[in-house]
Amino acid sequence: MKDSSHQKIARLFQRRWDSHYVAAKLRTDPLYDAVYSELKDSELPLLDLGCGLGLLAFFLREKGLSFPILGLDYDSRKAASANHAVELSKNRDLNFAHHDARNGLPEHSGNVTILDILQFFTPSELETLLALASERVAPGGKLVIRSGLKDTSWRFKITYLGDMLAKATFWMKAAPTHYPTAEDFQKILSPFGSVRILPLWGKTPFNNHLIVLERAASTASKTGAAIEVAS
Ligand SMILES: C[S@@+](CC[C@H](N)C(=O)[O-])C[C@H]1O[C@@H](n2cnc3c(N)ncnc32)[C@H](O)[C@@H]1O
Fold this sequence. Notes:
CATH architecture: 3-Layer(aba) Sandwich
Bound molecules: S-adenosylmethionine
Strand order of the largest sheet: 3-2-1-4-5-7-6
Oligomer: single chain
Number of helices: 8
Radius of gyration: 17 Å
């Protein structure tokens, strides 16, 4: 994506700090391009959990994807800023709401994204969230996750320090609680479909990985019923 598109998205945010953050994040983080590559051939609606300022949604619209997107975040300030940015952008079918993903998930059948939020969940909260999110992936759809993985690398240590810094500067409401391992993702997600795990740190020093759960197009839900599951 061109720098002018990054600036166009950044201008949707009125607070100067948000606007600088958005421009820098879009310029330096390979995350949004990687998620675009995963979703570009899909028309399924997207549920983005822990959407922050809604960067993924605005990025996907700039790239020409028009499926409906609902973003949820427990930081009401960020959800409100994202909704204000929707009004300025005149994008359609983009909605953001205040919601704590530890309190269940709304009905949804489509693709799901969980980007850079799992460090705030305890192991049991993580397992519950991943199962609820997986149940909301439609046949032929994907759950796309980015997470720092716990391992013995120097990258993992820097990831932890970065998350502590985000809390110290009040950019994040919480300090990191727990980091999952690659084996955790395989164990929790593989009953729902095929799982891929690959590095996604680009030029950053963090131990970030992309984890993709893909449901076969013909797969029925575990219960054999429609995939929409009440929260
Ligand atoms: C590092 S930011 C990532 C934002 C966005 N996913 C992105 O990649 O651009 C983590 C986000 O997760 C949100 N978050 C953390 N715990 C959450 C929870 N339990 N429910 C909903 N949102 C949560 C935070 O408020 C924050 O906006």
